[in-house]
Design goal:
The protein is mostly beta strands. The chain contains one helix and 15 strands; from the N terminus they run αβββββββββββββββ. The strands form three sheets. Strands 1, 2, 3, 5 and 9 form a five-stranded antiparallel β-sheet that branches. Strands 4, 11, 12, 13 and 15 form a five-stranded antiparallel β-sheet that branches. Strands 6, 7, 8, 10 and 14 form a five-stranded antiparallel β-sheet that branches. The longest helix is centred in the first third of the chain and has 5 residues, at about 10-15. The radius of gyration is 14 Å and the shape is globular. The two termini are about 20 Å apart. About 35% of the residues are buried.
Length: about 150
Amino acid sequence: MKCLEKMGNLSEMFKEKQLHIVYKAHMQDFGWLPEAADGVTAGKPDSGKRLEAIQVRLPDAPEGAGIRYCVHVAGKGWLPEVSDGAVGGTTGESRRAEAVKMHLVGCEGYTVFYRVFMHGKGWSGWCSNGQVAGTVGESRQLEAVEIYIQ
């Protein structure tokens, strides 16, 4: 499956949405950056600094609902899937994140969309429901991520 190249106006889509997503990025030389939410950029695109880890959560999710995600890390490959605010990726190891994939659980009628900024390539297309955003086998670092739920 290919990720979508374009999506409509994000602010228009969030007017009707009731389920929010909050996330943050751990960056080389910066550590954990402030939280971002609902499609806002987390990370530093075009900075030349590697994204090393992410944390993602659904603050207003109903009981039994959540998000699961995993990160492909240089020298380690795909790390085990984590969920609901856990660290996906590595911190303190100076390893670049190269790709991510995520999916919702217990959120009938909602879809998670995400894209990443890749060093030397720019933004990926929008991916959803477990598709890989980023690259595997190219030694290309991520520098930012954007995530929203529709």
